[in-house]
Amino acid sequence: MEPGEIHALLGENGAGKSTLMNVLYGLYQPDEGEILVDGKPLKLRGPSDAIAAGIGMVHQHFMLVPVFTVTENIMLGAEQVRGGIAGFLDRRRARREVAEVSERYNLRVDPDAVIEDLPVGIQQRVEIVKALTRDVDLLILDEPTAVLTPQETEELLTVMRSLKAAGKSIVFITHKLGEVKAIADRITVIRRGKTVGTASPEASRDELAALMVGRTVRLTVEKAPATPGEPVLDVAGLVVDDDRQVRAVDGVDLTVRAGEVLGIAGVQGNGQTELIEAIMGLRPTLAGTVTLDGQRVDGWSTKKVLRAGVGYVPEDRSVDGVVKEFSVAENLVLDIYDQPPFGRGLSLKPDAIAKSAQERIEQFDVRTSSAQAPVGTLSGGNQQKVIVARELSRPLKLFIAAQPTRGVDVGSIEFIHSRVIRERDIGTAVLVVSSELDEVIGLADRIAVMYRGRIIGVVGPDTPREEIGLLMAGITPDATAGNSAEGGDAATTDRDAAATADADAVSGGGTAATTDRDAPATTDGVAPAPEGPGSEDKEA
Amino acid sequence: MTNPNPQPGSPDKEPASEEQAAQNALGNTERAEAATTPTAPQERPTLGRLFLENLWAANTFTVTLLSLVLAMVVGAILMIISDPDVLATYAYFTARPADAINASWTLVSEAYANLFKGAVFDPAAANFNTALSPISETLTYTAPLVFTGLSVALAFRGGLFNIGAQGQATMGVVLAALAGFLLPLPPGLHLLVAVLAGAVGGAIWGFIPGVLKARTGAHEVINTIMLNYIAVYFLTWLIVQNGVQDPNRTDAISRPVDASAQLPRLFGDNLRAHGGILLAVLATWAVAWLLNRSTLGFELRAVGANPDAARTAGISVTRTYVLIMVFAGVLAGLGGSQMVLGTTAAALTPLVVAQIGFDGILVALLGRVKPWGVALAALLFGALQAGGNRMQSYSGISLELVTVLQALIVIFIAAPALVKAIFQLRAARAARLQTSLAKGW
């Protein structure tokens, strides 16, 4: 690493990027080899050593206390105390430092805002400020763009450029090729814990991808044009609350036809999760209807919905998808364990379960040491294949896949995508939810963009990325005209007015940046974008 | 379609993840081993080698055994300290150490010898009956513990912490006793009804916290503890009511259970072992089947390991919670019913269930919440109690020492890292990372 360099670390999931960086940050101890800083070997016993050596890290999952303010979070671990042994926290000084750092690097954050009220992009900025207040020279960003909108990503890249200008070095971990090409000065590709090559940003995407997985992969999904049939899933006027009793889905209308893939794009937290959970009977619907093949299914139990021919790949694999302690075989029958031939009456048939597991492990190319190995020992991609195998091995009318390839390596992504398309081609209606725009564009025959609990536009897959990106940020091409026309009750009008304000603020700002961060003071009435519609409801 | 995968450099990271697991020094050695062993079945190590490996790896059976040894060592120290005569010899330890060592050895070895003689076999037994007596005593103490242990273990596997086995056993003993002396039924049928009444009593007392948990999210630990109190005071109140209290007595004791509702004795009238132990074996088998070979057990284990995934897969978590608690209650109630239907007592007293519910928690932990493990653990606890009686009367060591021993064993088992550190066993760190008991909270 040179000073003032942005070094991208590229590799598949599980290639060892994060592990390497955790070693660098002192979280793990190296078994062999050494780390050189300014030519001197460095021994790190913990993150505090790393910070002392000028290394800071922004983790993939933010290490922030949600109920603390920005200042409190930043001072955490390096608390300034005054009053000697009484040890009062010197909040004022910390606050001043935060303000100073964010001023110097042009990273605007409100020092008194509470973290949980902030959008993800700002939270990440807080993490960066936190690292910078510790006077680091080398900043490690672990998959920083995974949770951001295209616009937020663009902003982050701007921030990185300004940090680079200030002489800081940045290690940028990612598996997204586009960003790497956009920002990196040097690219190191890691595969299976080994450096397999260094490349310059001029290398083509395909070259980099090939380096990453060790063979050429198709980045686009090959598929024939869809032949949509009858509507299978009909969602009309659906209203759903999230766990905090805040409106998450606010009048969604959707139709998915047999033999087509409907993709739902959108920044996470705009109601996609709640929408899917409501369809699956995992979350009560407050209004509206869900119709499956002509039959009302809202209010049904999850089991009944599954039995009616719905396959479901949940968004959070490790929480909702698999039981980690269970074997691969048991996970493969997690929702059909009581159906013949796996169970008859009260008794379970382990032989049948093991036999079918063996078949499906081969069919779906699950890499496991045995069908009896606990699923927790498998890699993320293989766990996901187990779930996909489970859901796709019974006859389906509707297949719902939420974030089907999140945290999955490129090879498995390709496989899972081809399976989804194959399911479409045999006439199943497919609903794909993903926060990866590329995935939605690649898979879907129609794309519905969800924003603050509503579908704000349905477009074809050939729509330019930028246009979809704008929709994801809540900006419709004809924002001022279109929205007010469809307004119904008073609350809706309010919301539309707010949305219009959003659009105005942004068009004033010039770039395609999302709403409030550029002008937090001026658009006070508007809630932070990825928060969802919640905060709006409070004021309404 | 099969994944086109011509090159060995496949994109999947399974081997990489194992390498990482090792590199990261996350201490996940056991898992990695479990995952890798099945891949190389062609080369079978010798039995002795396997045994050694198992011994030095984080083997739970070894830890259990060593915990037992450690507990006995601490118990020995306690015996020495609490005996003034032996302790006196330590006053001149530097002058004549042999005195102190001899006195300590005599005390401890005799005490533990009596423990053994009381629990397993007395070499000085005159005839067949007296030779069988220690075993009979052990089995008598074991039977109810198997049930309460299974009750706690079953709930554990379903992700619930059933502290209420005591209360469930209490309600079980109440209903079993009432059925035992209030219903005039023919022998056989009477016993069956009384046993079922015990099961029903426990089931009700398990259903309440189960349904509260499922419907309102109230934590089962709090509710089962509270229900324990309610059950024990209900019992105390009930005993002195007309029709329940023994008309010939003024103290708090109920009428005795009819002979027609008593569990048959196994080894003749002079030995206390009764049919309860057979029921216990049956129950262990049933619970093992339920957990591993039934759809209900699949649901139960799935809910216990990951309720979110279970719910997503269409399993009704609330229904499962209620069922788990009802089953746990049934088991504890059956255990309780043996306290009056067996040979321990024939009538209700305020302390009729003793500590079997709370001991059940220890038994479940000691048995690693596996059915047959629980049965063995109950056998150990039963043996300790049977032997403790003899130790008290022959060596003058108070019975409470047995309770201390039991507690120590469980403490050592709950802290496998400590045991392994003491005995310098490999992978102590691994065990610390995967202590089995955190579940349920």
UniProtKB/TrEMBL annotation, chain B:
Compartment(s): Cell membrane
Positions of region (Disordered): 1-43
Biased composition (Low complexity): 34-43
Keyword Transmembrane: yes
A single Gene Ontology CC term: plasma membrane
Membrane topology: Multi-pass membrane protein
Source taxon at top rank: Bacteria
UniProt keyword terms in alphabetical order: Cell membrane, Membrane, Transmembrane, Transmembrane helix
UniProt cross-references to InterPro entries, sorted A to Z: ABC_transp_permease
Transmembrane segments: 56-81, 138-156, 163-183, 189-208, 220-240, 273-291, 321-341, 347-365, 372-389, 401-423
Molecular function terms from GO: transmembrane transporter activity
Protease is among the record's keywords: no
Protein name: ABC transporter permease
Species for this entry: Micromonospora craterilacus
